[in-house]
Amino acid sequence: MFDVQVTDLGNSLYMIDAGMHDEPERLACYLFDTPTRVLIECGPSNVLPNLVAALDSIGIDDVAAMVVTHIHLDHAGGAGHFAERFPESLIGVHARGARHLADPTRLWDSAERIYTPEGMQTLWGPMQPVPEDRLLVLDEGSAISLGGGRQLEVMYTPGHAKHHIVFTEEGSGGMFVGDSVGIAFPHGHMVQPVTPPPDFDEPLVVRQLRRMAARQPGFVGFAHYGVTSHVARVFDQAEARLGEWVSFVESLGEAADASDRLRDWVLGAYQSEGIPEEDIDQYDRNTFWPMQVTGIQRWLTQQDDG
User: How many Å apart are CA 164 and CA 176, to the nearest integer?
Assistant: First the structure.
């Protein structure tokens, strides 16, 4: 089993390394160990043993609610298994994602076309439904009680996905952003866009980035991976890089090797900026380049058709 890591962030808040793909720093889950315990993200089903071991290590055996930023498998694939393991826990999800957790057939079939049946089992493990009476349906303005006068507030942040939400919490100062800002691994938190089909929408992402920045959180908690207090820089960099990516992919037209060319261009730029090779490798291993290109190309085509 993965050697679980739990980081005490203060204010009754913990960051759990879920050990996704049996590697450190691939997926962060955030636990509020408050009178009403709430966990943000559960990851795919094959990390549930790691997550349970992490909770056990800090003496947690019950969770009032597990909430997900969106229903992509690396964030919510294990929601049904989590609900089974913690039968008193509600499962919070945006209204546009709730039906896919209640019946994950379409979500699974769509992902299987990308990853293949064998890849699905290796990368994510199986999915199972969340009972409908266990779903906590969330939207812009929803609030989730943490007890003790604290609460998680919900922002609806489409652009990466139509079912994406972000959580903010005044007591800790945290904003937990899922994939809405991008990926930003430790050792400097260089933000990289995440642009998957079918929902990627550049101007919509930018609008959400500006809405999130306007809230002026004390820190940003990335799912991939970790926390940073360089908040203004994070949002500025996310917007700038996204525009650069879209422009570059647009310049490639219908090139058959577009994903390879995007990868070479991005990683080459990191090298020229003096980013350490081990950090560049971490971004490379955590990026499915064909998906990023496809998402941008799909959005560009929609603009042409419109």
Answer: 12
